[in-house]
Amino acid sequence: AAAEPSGHVIACDVHAGQCADDPLSTPLLQRVRGIVGRPGLLYAGDCKMAALATRAEIAAHHDFYLMPLPRTGETATQVESWITAIVEGVQEATLLWDGERMLGAGYEFERPLRALVDGASVCWTERVQVVRSPTLAQRQQATLEKRLAVAEEELRALTPPPGRGKRQFRDADTLQAAVTRVLERHDVAGLLTATWERHETTVTGYVGRGRGGPDRPIRTQVQVRYALAGVQRNEEAIAARRHRLGWRVQVTNAPADRLSLVQAVRHYRGGWSLERDFHLLKDLPLGLSPLFVWKAEQIIGLTRLLTLALRLLTLLEMQVRRGLEQTQEAVAGLYEGAPTRTTERPTGTRLLQAFARAQLTLTHVRMRRSTGWYLTPLSPLHERLLQHLHLPTSLYTALAYNSS
Questions:
Q1: Is the pLDDT of residue 263 over 90?
Q2: Most buried pick, 10, 181, 219, 264, via CB within 10 A?
Q3: Which of 359, 281, 356, 339 is nearest to 314 (CA)?
């Protein structure tokens, strides 16, 4: 769990990979609620957090949620019907604007929900938001085009010309089953149509072994093979499929006066802070990678240690950004090769690299009977960073005195 938009880690649980995702959110939500100590928070998550029990637990404690619905089970049928209503023109869509930038289009409606939380019945009203993103639609259209191209190539490769080691289809049902498997594997059923031809070849040979003669009986066989004649695209079906791309259904129990449809779309798309924390945890400088150890406690212990480092990294970042925002200034010198480039939102990694590049050293000097210590002085950049971190410079200069 991370705070938005700073990305500062609030709480973290470590579970085995084979655990189900649905029941894992509730204990973490309870921990966050105890840490923050106030109701009325907005919890945003992915579809793994959209279980009805999780939503009911959030609503029961007078909090709010925002998350997309997964296309599984009964929810998948409902989502398809909501998308069909707007695609077929039964439901009108509203353009969603963020200033001069269009976020997409969509609509919303309310529905009552009821569930049990700790044996008590909880009732609340949920807003269902059906939204289409042009960027998501373009990305899914490119994926669809790629699947169509791969499926066409595999279909044409089903019936190669006769030759050594080339499998031939001797009946139409077997070929039809192979075509169906290809279409279903690439999720393009109904978008491509394969046609084939029946080829017959007459083969005449002598009965039995040995050389032929004038009195040798002759046997004639007819070999049948089915070969694809072509693969056609069903343009109308493909166009209909494209109209259904880019849609997402998200739900929230926040009132419209607190979180409008446009604000909900903008807020969910801006919820990248937790994903960024995952990247920081798995990449440099922390670098959590697959481990091969004997005991699960070793994995849990190392993961918790690295999450503590992640909390410190995000805390440094949040403190410096907050200080720069209060003073309304930007900081320079954090980018290698661009000393004059400034930023108002430095990352924790660049803050650490700024100290690492300074090559701060503590030198022990001995001259006959006298001993001294020399500590590389801090630059104005480092002093400003320590100031925004609310750390005194004596924390650094005391290294020389503590080493005496």
A1: yes
A2: 264
A3: 281
Token pair belonging to 348: 């924790």
Q: Interior CA angle at 260 toward 255 and 262, to 5°?
A: 155
Kindly state the average pLDDT of the residues 206-225: 76
**One-letter identity of residue 205:** G
For 82, phi then psi, to 5°, come to: -70, -40
CB 68 within 8 A of CB 250: yes
pLDDT at 404: 58
Q: Strands 42-44 and 64-68: what pairing?
A: parallel
Closest C-alpha among 347, 317, 306, 263 to residue 44: 263
Asked if 314 and 348 touch (Cβ cutoff 8 Å), the reply is yes
Secondary structure letter of residue 48 according to DSSP: G
Residue 296's pLDDT is 81
CB 63 within 8 A of CB 39: yes
Q: In angstroms, what CA-CA distances link 59 with 2, 121, 171?
A: 20, 11, 60
- Tokens, residue 402: 């503590």
pLDDT, mean of residues 102-127: 94
184: left (phi over 0), alpha (psi -120 to 50) or beta: alpha
Q: What is the mean pLDDT of residues 145-161?
A: 93
User: In sequence order, what are the beta bridge partners of 112?
Assistant: 125
pLDDT band at 402 (very low <50, low <70, confident <90, very high): low
Query: What three-state secondary structure class fits 144?
Result: helix
Rounded Cα distance between 90 and 67, Å, is 25
Q: Looking at the predicted structure, is the pLDDT value of residue 368 above 80?
A: no
pLDDT at residue number 205: 73
* Cα gap 217→373, rounded to integer Å: 110
C-alpha distances in angstroms, 126 versus 64, 66, 108, 227, 250?
Answer: 10, 10, 10, 55, 10
Kindly state the helix (H) or strand (E) to which residue 77 belongs, with its residue range. Answer: helix 73-87
DSSP letters spanning 310-365: HHHHHHHHHHHHHHHHHHT--EES-STT-TT-EESS--HHHHHHHHHHTT--EEEE
Look at the block and give the residue holding tokens 């032929």. Answer: 212
What is the value of pTM for the model shown? 0.79
* Tokens describing residue 233: 């695209």
Kindly report the number of other CB atoms within 10 A of residue 268's CB atom.
19
